[in-house]
Write a structure and sequence with these properties.
Layout: E1 9-17, H1 21-35, E2 40-41, E3 44-47, E4 57-66, H2 70-83, E5 99-105, E6 110-112, E7 115-117, H3 126-135, H4 148-154, E8 163-165
Antiparallel strand pairs: 1-4, 1-5, 2-4, 3-4, 3-8, 6-7
Helix pairs in contact: 1-2, 3-4
Length: 167
């Protein structure tokens, strides 16, 4: 049950996949929009796989407001991944239909519900940082104390090619 007195918080989630992205992204976005009607979506980018050899990934970031606790948001994201045909036991580094990871949960800095907030690799991965900077350029990172725009402008893009794609 949701605490009726819980304040609304803005949540930012990375979405990525490299198996049939034209099929699974529309499904994931529809399911996310049903769960979180305030959903906002960044542009999508194609990039090389990271951590393993495989097909290119498509990545974007979504944002929504919720009063749900982190654990409930994470449960919903896992359920959406399963509805996008991702096996519950899928390997961390491998091809996938859909991967949904919480990047920021308001300005919370914590380790809870199986995730570290803010997500540590957010500032190291172009495929997370660029879409987030597109979606919320003036959002201040809770530990870096810089806006997403500033973080992206300082990012060394040369080894992290991103190509804008339409879904």
């Amino acid at each position: 049950m949701v605490d009726v007195y819980a304040p609304m918080v803005d949540v930012y989630v990375a979405a990525g996949g490299n198996i049939e992205p034209q099929r699974y992204f529309p499904r994931a976005l529809e399911l996310l929009r049903r769960a979180y009607p305030t959903l906002r979506v960044s542009p999508a980018y194609r990039n090389r796989s990271v951590g393993f050899e495989g097909e290119d990934f498509v990545n974007l970031v979504v944002a929504f407001s919720t009063d749900e606790p982190v654990a409930r948001v994470r449960e919903r994201l896992r359920a959406i991944e399963r509805q996008c045909d991702r096996p519950a036991d899928a390997p961390k580094w491998g091809p996938r239909t859909m991967d949904l990871d919480i990047l920021l949960y308001g300005d919370r800095v914590s380790t809870e519900a199986g995730c570290v907030l803010p997500r540590p690799d957010l500032v190291k991965r172009a495929y997370m940082l660029k879409p987030l900077a597109d979606l919320a350029p003036d959002l201040v990172h809770p530990t870096e104390r810089k806006t997403m725009r500033e973080l992206w402008e300082a990012f060394d893009e040369k080894d992290h090619e991103l190509v804008h794609v339409s879904l």
